[in-house]
Amino acid sequence: MPAPKVAIACQGGGSHAAFTAGVLAGLFSPAHRDRFVPLALSGTSGGAVCAALAWSGLLARGPDEAVRRLDGFWDELAARDPLEAWLNAWTQLLYALPFTVNASPYAYSPAAEPRLRALLQTWLQPEALPADPAARVRPYLRVGVADVLRGGGAALGGEDSEFSVDDVVASAAVPPLFRAVGARGRLWWDGLYAHNPPIGALLDLPEKPEEIWVIRLNPLARREEPRTVEAIEDRRNEMAGNLPLDEELSGIALVNRLLAAAPVLGERFGYRPVTVREVALPLEELSYASKLDRSAAHLDRLSALGRDLAPRLFDPASVTVRPEG
């Protein structure tokens, strides 16, 4: 049986995307890389960072380079020296306080954006991307962003001549940690306000995926009612982050059911059933503040967990949307 053509969709979640990096590294390891054909990658925020790094590595020198770039980026992002560790600890403390500290990112010089931009310049290596857009489409890349001024969202393509580091930084520009990021003549915020991650854009590709594999960072369910201010805020953020994704997946399930009931629709409109699989970050105890935690121990733990769980995507139990809907 031929390996399925797969589009991998990476949900956003700040530092939790180290788990995504681990899943991708596991999938592109020698043990699993021949079990699927990577047709496309999409992502939002930290998921966009991981998707773009894997995409650029695959284009440059294949799966080993994709893994090298993923590992290198997250290793360098980690707060390892004493000053970085101190600043990281203060960030965790501020976001764990039972009240909000409001400050506009335009009132100070944000440190997050230039650091992210520099790391992406190093590990994405945009200047080394093929000049010919046709050489950037196997796999395709789609980066989710939200339009600050016009509303709505977009899925920016890696094969576009305008593609740059700005696209990926824009996808991660969550306010108020970031100012709005200019790219392609528009102002963008974090794509979680529109597509988290882009799914529909994967179905609009010239070559259609047979399966979509979702790497989910926000838990779908909680066992207990959130009662503290922090727990309520955590759950609110999780639900808001899942809503765009779950709506798009529901749309796929609906189309699959329609095609099963009336196959002529597929023949007439060029639709075909799509299987959706998921692997999810299983650590329910992680708080919103931990999405900002860059400690080496935290990132290394998430990355290792992602590598361990990557093979679950080959398990029949990972299917969340079946071809018959």
TrEMBL record:
Cell membrane recorded as keyword: no
Keyword Calcium: no
Segments carrying motif GXSXG: 43-47
Keyword tags: Hydrolase, Lipid degradation, Lipid metabolism
Entry-linked InterPro entries: Acyl_Trfase/lysoPLipase, PNPLA_dom
UniProt domain PNPLA: residue ranges: 8-203
Active site: 45 (nucleophile), 190 (proton acceptor)
Signal sequence, renumbered to the chain: none
Protein name: Patatin
Taxonomic lineage of the native organism: Bacteria, Pseudomonadati, Pseudomonadota, Alphaproteobacteria, Acetobacterales
